[in-house]
Amino acid sequence: MFFVSLIPIRPELPFGAPSERSDAARNRERLLHAARELVNECGVDAFTMDMLACRADVGKGTVFRRFGSRAGLMMTLLSDSESEFQRQFIFGPPPLGPGAPPLERLIAFGEARIKFVEEFGELARAASEHSPQNRHDAPPVVLWHRHIEMLLREAGLDRDPWLLALSLGASLDPERVLHSLREHGIPQERLAASWRELVTRLLKDG
Amino acid sequence: MFFVSLIPIRPELPFGAPSERSDAARNRERLLHAARELVNECGVDAFTMDMLACRADVGKGTVFRRFGSRAGLMMTLLSDSESEFQRQFIFGPPPLGPGAPPLERLIAFGEARIKFVEEFGELARAASEHSPQNRHDAPPVVLWHRHIEMLLREAGLDRDPWLLALSLGASLDPERVLHSLREHGIPQERLAASWRELVTRLLKDG
DNA sequence: GATCTAAACGGACTACAGTCCGGTTAATAT
DNA sequence: ATATTAACCGGACTGTAGTCCGTTTAGATC
């Protein structure tokens, strides 16, 4: 059994916080506000960092100092939703949260993730674009990967559950799921059913 | 049973080929030669289209007229190896080719794909970068996706084998496999073993 | 309040993919 | 040989992410 704690998506101020300067704080708020506005107005894909700098009335350098990259900004925008999702599968009610048998939790996890992607997929995809590092090793990704691994272990799959979790996780990748939903028009329910089928077969008789 | 034919990776000259002009042919050769040279010299990631145009002593417009995009060029560079891979799992000897039971073919397919990525992964990744379309719907991808689907069907998995094949395929995605190999230092054999475990469990008692 | 300094700022600059369009040329017809 | 023309060519141009560095300023110290 592990000890899992919520992982902050974008750890602001690494440790002994020398507390943010007031102008910096003001600009961060302005930027986040403008970013949300712009994403609503023209969508994630048409959104550019120049537009953001302009709208927030701030220099471009400031934007990048704050968020590091376009992907970093997207992560920040996603951070609250991602935390909420984490909260649900770690502390929430069963079958997603603890209390249900591992197979049921896995099924629920897939379903929930698919819904998450339906809602925030564009952001999530943009958050890992142009960076395999972000895609595979970002804190939230690592966390739900470990979650799957733990459930596999509980279900008695002891043959390299880490890699197995990686494979399962792959099929829930935002880009893939989004592509199935949007490009192939596959309904959420069918994706969820396929996931259920997959993990059910996998966990059958330990 | 389907009728499968080799899919040309980059269908040169769409249909009623009006035959390429001689200067165009010359330039295509020059470009391919220069591209291979440059990829060898500085690696896929450092490779730029400007470098290519310069090295081949050709205008930039010509490069893009020929290959459409960076990803398109990478596909072209990959095309021969990809065709060879296709040949092996469609016509080659068992267990990869026809003749072995589906589970064994599936296992062999994963192993072969992992080796392929070990060798050509950087190219393959670059060929689908910046384009979910390329990543998921490029002809070779569609082909091996259908191959997996067929094997699943043969093995008696009739519950939405198309989507199941998509999920399995996801774990063989070049970017993922490459990331495991290079970033996490996971040896090829361990990936292959995990794949074997995955599909074996999945196909157990139809 | 004056001084100091590290942090934050802004916007010009670079790198790269991809587009555009006026000029050139290979192939064909005459 | 000459004319014709559709395909081809080059390279200047655009859009966007990300960097750099001289300037400004918040906030702490005296």
What coarse outline of chain A follows from CA principal-axis ratios? elongated
Mean pLDDT of chain A: 92
Number of strands of chain A: 0
What string, H for helix and E for strand, traces the elements of chain A in order?
A: HHHHHHHHHH
How many domains of chain A?
2
From the N-terminal CA to the C-terminal CA of chain A, the straight-line distance is 18 Å
Please name the CATH architecture of the largest domain in chain A: Orthogonal Bundle
The total of helices of chain A stands at 10
Give the full name of the CATH homologous superfamily of the largest domain in chain A: Tetracycline Repressor, domain 2
This entry's quaternary arrangement is: homodimer
Low-confidence stretches of chain A: 1-6
Rg on CA atoms of chain A, Å:
19 Å
* Greatest interface: A-B, 34 and 34 residues
CATH fold assignment of the largest domain in chain A: Tetracycline Repressor, domain 2
Strand content of chain A: under 5%
Fraction in helix of chain A: over 70%
